[in-house]
Design goal:
The chain is mainly α. The protein has ten helices and no strands.
Length: 205
């Protein structure tokens, strides 16, 4: 289901732009450069997210990236909800997620969206957000593979929304899940062959 459209189209467009610009801030790259950890694009998978930042060996940088990437998604949702409405909040959140995955500043080659996705879930519906975070932690801990946590959390997000009767958010979670699976298609291929790297270990090959 979709939220009721109560915000003027021009304002929805504005919130989409704001959300995209917030989401496109590459905090992983900014932190690794500020902390002189090298060029993140030449480390591990070359991804700009927290999992790849962890491959620099700096846990503080990885934790900061996780929090900031999640925070930018949450801020986009909360600002739009406060200043406009639920329809604008969902659109801004989706745009922030796409901004992280496809930032114009990096030739549309961004992260895989997991931290931003979790931030969105917490801002959209904090009970569902907590369930998604718990799902991610449990799946990642049991498998020792970050991508498994991400895929399971995304897959379960719509079920958690239905369970909590947040029906107006289900269309958004389905869309986010599809993009996360698309962004993780190389991880899925490695999972099938048993070559997906475990948390904290450098990706080879």
């Amino acid at each position: 289901m979709l939220p009721d459209l109560t915000t003027a189209p021009i304002l929805l467009l504005l919130w989409a732009v704001i959300g995209y610009l917030l989401g496109s801030i590459p905090f992983g790259m900014l932190l690794t450069r500020a902390m002189k950890l090298g060029d993140l694009r030449s480390i591990g998978s070359g991804n700009i997210g927290a999992t790849n930042v962890l491959r620099t060996g700096n846990k503080a940088a990885a934790a900061g990236t996780l929090l900031l990437d999640g925070g930018k998604g949450a801020v986009a949702v909360l600002l739009a909800r406060w200043l406009a409405g639920e329809d604008a909040a969902q659109l801004a959140g989706l745009a922030a997620f796409l901004g992280h995955c496809y930032p114009v500043w990096l030739r549309f080659e961004g992260g895989k969206g997991v931290a931003t996705f979790l931030g969105l879930m917490l801002a959209l519906s904090w009970p569902v957000g907590l369930m998604c975070c718990a799902t991610w932690l449990a799946a990642a801990a049991l498998s020792s593979i970050s991508s498994v946590g991400a895929l399971v959390a995304a897959l379960m997000s719509t079920a958690w929304m239905v369970l909590m009767r947040e029906y107006e958010l289900t269309a958004l979670t389905v869309a986010l899940t599809i993009v996360i699976f698309w962004r993780h298609r190389s991880n899925i291929a490695r999972l099938r062959t048993g070559t997906e790297p475990r948390i904290g270990k450098k990706k080879t090959g």
